[in-house]
Design goal:
The protein is mainly β. 8% of the residues lie in helices and 37% in strands. The chain contains 6 helices and 30 strands. Bound molecules: 2-acetamido-2-deoxy-beta-D-glucopyranose (NAG) (4 copies).
């Protein structure tokens, strides 16, 4: 009833260009559109400035594979005009976003802290639960405390809320990414959430079992000025974003003897690690948030920025480079360097800024890579053209991406002569 987008744009189609890798567009949009409870409420949202399509940009994706598949998508409130910050779409049958868990949860626009204010990313714990990280902010205004919300995806009921105390965040904080480590799979009572504070330059750990959180500072959580300029498809913007992407290693990394958190700042060209044993020990951080600086290590450099990342069950890490616009992989049992980063799939159009990425196991037990791309460069410069395709959800079978091998392989990034690194001599 509220369709504005030509149907043809939303129909699942298969890309055949550039590669044999079977990367499909699950859905694409010129602008984000929502199902409102009624036409009157939709009109009211438009009239009151609470629905401004130019202001809405999708950031993350998550998939709830059950009898009816729901593909969740986040739309943070960088500014006003976003009717709902979290919603879902069902495979190819619906074209608009259905607010989650309901429109009412999103409609106070900062006035009601029992609801949801702004969500960048979500995480799935394997127990039919989705963890929603809410910044509590609209633009620069902190309306509510940041919070973690856990929803049961079968009942769609809130099962847990944790509000972060004032000493867990600073004025510039923005809690953008939650990554989960579940010690008791299938029960999910012993879960730790690692949370990226992208502009407060911190890492926050939340322990579900003890219902408490602690904050960690380290220089590797900061942006690097030499990597503060982003050029995507020929357009540039400056962004000094710190810690953004994280992943937990499946097995000890090369030379390590234990599992670690891998992480990087957005404005950086390095990948870093810290043992979970260190960041999981609340005592250390409650005494000194700046403790153990030498436990945080640069593991290598890729020479260029990347956004989101995700790891499969065999320890292959996937991410998308800014240049070339390509899905690449790195086998985490090798050293992190451009020789070992392999190009799997290039597409200059559809990969324009991958801000959200997940490895999802489908109902046949096969792993899939899901990502959201959003032409961030256009949003940053205010030049988004709502008559063009701006936003895409992409999906690929990991087996086909890896050419039916267990380990990441393909042509090395090092051998790609078209890559111009922003600054070869600095990391
Ligand atoms: C946590 O760190 C403290 C201080 O370094 C240490 O004494 C304690 O044994 C550690 N606890 C665990 C469970 O590793
Ligand atoms: C927006 O995109 C449409 C379709 O590609 C194009 O015809 C139009 O000229 C563009 N508008 C601007 C202002 O670039
Ligand atoms: C799971 O993914 C594999 C590989 O892409 C595919 O062959 C299979 O049909 C998928 N299963 C379901 C239930 O979607
Ligand atoms: C990986 O790819 C390279 C070529 O890029 C090839 O020489 C090598 O045999 C491949 N390794 C495996 C294990 O397939």
């Amino acid at each position: 009833m509220y369709l504005k987008i030509p149907l043809t744009l939303s129909i699942l189609l298969i890309l055949t260009s550039n590669t044999e890798a079977n990367v499909q567009i699950f859905k694409q949009w010129q602008q984000m559109d929502y199902y409102f409870p009624s036409p009157a409420i939709r009109q009211q949202a438009i009239n009151s400035g609470n629905y401004v399509p130019e202001n809405i940009i999708p950031i993350d994706v998550s998939v709830d594979y059950r009898d009816t598949t729901r593909v969740f998508i986040t739309m943070p409130r960088f500014t006003t005009g976003v009717p709902a910050s979290l919603g879902y779409t069902k495979s190819s049958s619906t074209y608009s976003i259905i607010p989650y868990p309901s429109y009412d949860w999103h409609s106070s626009h900062g006035k009601n802290c029992e609801g949801i204010t702004s969500v960048f990313r979500v995480a799935y714990d394997g127990c039919n639960q989705m963890w929603v990280l809410d910044t509590g902010k609209i633009g620069d205004i902190q309306y509510c405390q940041p919070q973690l919300l856990i929803f049961n995806l079968i009942t769609d009921k809130l099962v847990k809320r944790y509000r972060f105390n004032r000493n867990m965040y600073v004025d510039t904080s923005l809690f953008v990414t939650p990554i989960l480590d579940v010690a008791d799979p299938g029960r999910c009572t012993k879960v730790k959430a690692y949370i990226a504070d992208v502009t407060g330059f911190g890492l926050v750990v939340y322990d579900l079992e003890y219902n408490k959180a602690w904050r960690i500072n380290n220089k590797l959580l900061y942006p690097y000025p030499n990597y503060g300029k982003f050029t995507i498809a020929g357009e540039s913007f400056d962004l000094m974003d710190g810690l953004l992407a994280m992943t937990i290693t499946k097995a000890p990394l090369r030379q390590d003897t234990e599992r670690s958190l891998l992480f990087h700042a957005l404005a950086s060209a390095t990948e870093n690690s810290v043992p979970l044993r260190i960041i999981n020990n609340a005592t250390i951080w409650e005494n000194d948030a700046n403790a153990m600086p030498d436990e945080f290590k640069v593991i290598g450099t890729r020479g260029i920025q990347t956004g989101a990342q995700a790891m499969d069950k065999n320890g292959n890490l996937f991410f998308v480079l800014l240049n070339p616009l390509a899905i690449v992989c790195w086998d985490s049992s090798t050293s992190y360097k451009t020789d070992n980063i392999k190009i799997l799939y290039r597409n200059d159009e559809t990969l324009q800024f991958a801000s959200g990425m997940k490895v999802v196991t489908n109902l046949s037990g096969e792993e899939e890579l899901w990502l959201v791309t959003n032409r961030l460069q256009k949003y940053m410069s205010g030049s988004t053209n709502l008559s063009e395709t701006n936003f895409r959800i992409l999906v690929a079978s990991i087996r086909s991406l890896l050419n039916f091998k267990d380990k990441c392989n393909g042509s090395s990034l090092r051998n790609d002569q078209t890559i111009v690194f922003p600054d070869r001599n600095s990391i």
